[in-house]
Design brief:
The protein is elongated. It contains 2 helices and 5 strands, in the order H-E-E-E-E-E-H. Strand 4 and strand 5 form a beta hairpin. By secondary structure, it is of the alpha+beta class. The longest helix has 13 residues. Helices cover 30% and strands 41% of the residues.
């Protein structure tokens, strides 16, 4: 149908797996386009607000290095 063809021009078939260790993003026709660790580094400030410092691979490496030294 013509409407399906037009709709297909503006959309991608996309799946996101929010796993406990990694987050996978799959795009139909391309496969897995993103495979990143599910880690976020957050800093709490003195007034109670939170600030995201890093996501994915960078905070995971820092966490692993800290575990090795303790």
């Amino acid at each position: 149908m013509l409407l399906d063809w037009v709709y297909g021009l503006f959309s991608n078939d996309l799946a996101i797996d929010l796993g406990t260790a990694t987050t996978l993003t799959f795009v139909r026709g391309k496969g897995i386009v993103s495979n990143e660790p599910s880690v976020v580094a957050v800093q709490r400030t003195g007034n109670g607000t939170k600030k995201v410092l890093a996501v994915a691979s960078r905070p995971r490496r820092c966490w692993a290095a800290r575990r090795e030294t303790s």
